[in-house]
Amino acid sequence: MGICGTGMASLAGLFHESGFRVTGSDQGVYPPMSDLLKELGIDVMNGYRASNLEERPDLVVVGNVIRRTNPEAVELEHSGIPFTTLPDAIHRYFSGNKTRIVVAGTHGKTTLSAMISWILHHEGLEPGFMIGGVPLNFERNYRLGTGDYFIIEGDEYDTAYFEKSPKFLHYHPDVGIITSCEFDHGDIYDNLDQIKEKFRAFAQLIPSQGCLIVNWDDDTVRQIVDRVNPQFESYGFGGSSNWTVQGAEDTGRGMIATVRRGAEEVAWGTLPILGFHNLVNALAAIAVAEKVGIDPQKAMDALASYRGVKRRQEVLAEEAGIVIMEDFAHHPTAVKLTCEGVRSRYPGKRLVAVFEPRTNTSRRAFFQSDYVPAFLSADLIVLREPRDVQNIVPGDRFSSEKLATDLMSFGKDARAFGDTDQIVEFLSGSLEGGDIVLIMSTGSFDTLGARVVTALKEREK
Fold it and tell me: What pLDDT is recorded for position 275?
């Protein structure tokens, strides 16, 4: 139930490739996961209904998008059919007998999980994994794997309507990574302290023979680890970290750096990644790889062929000398780092940042003022007003128009639009050769990228 969610579709794929017959339901079936499910031959019922359970399944996995009042959930509880959660199903059927590497944190989880998976695969360890984005090296965001390791992207969002604790507390980590910790998910957390407590609980799950690896550049992560005080290793740009990088430079083709463990240089190379934040992710991946017996230089060499993750600084097209990119950034910190990374890669170009506030948190006013510094490295900022806000108290809604006004007070060219059609029209008439267009959304953004490319082609004709 809720099969078109990224994690749920991946789980469906894992079951399917294990020989189970899989079906699912969702509301307004949507890509890209609907396309994956169709490719796999998995039947998807559009809409939640009691009748979806008439052909009684042996097990129902309930996604966290499902509410207790959902008609299918009501029927499920009356039916006596066994049901469970996504994390429980992963552990019970796919990761329980393997060494589990769980990547947690507000930012960077998907990229770091993909990097670790690629290193282990490159070195012949045949890992299984389930990731919240599609690694371009694999073209799917899940893999059964025949080896001893399973990599899981573990988020702090709740698990199901009948299990409100974070998903990452149910993955039983042997190796745990905390990339960062900031306030997010304002629909289920009241403040940062609540989130910190969940991360402390995650850190305490690491067994004595396991390892916790943490980003020492993040002050909040330091506070979490200091309170828990497990055995851990740290990474970051700071000189006090166990793992650090030196000589980092964006060459225009990638990031060049030397990796040090303590005082020892252990790896060197150029990585095809964008932004210093992704260099820190690579550093963490190398630290994890060393924990499973992979030499750091071999891990660095493996990352030289890392292709990234779909919709993470992904170049969609170059049309009329204009580069169109997509990214998943939504939290102000992620928006800031992504804009700065693109700016570093394309110095001297006009950076056009296009943003849709789409998450439960970003559609609310939690980060209204925090988004202002996030966009300051862009030259032109184009904002869509949030959709589906009718259930949010008007005073609690995020305002793209206010953000545009605030950005203009800093001398920025910023525009807010009520719908995507207006944005397409504006961009098709305003973009110039040499522009870099960075589109940021957690959803399809009404296929904005493809529509802009089409409009530019028509303009050229």
Answer: 83
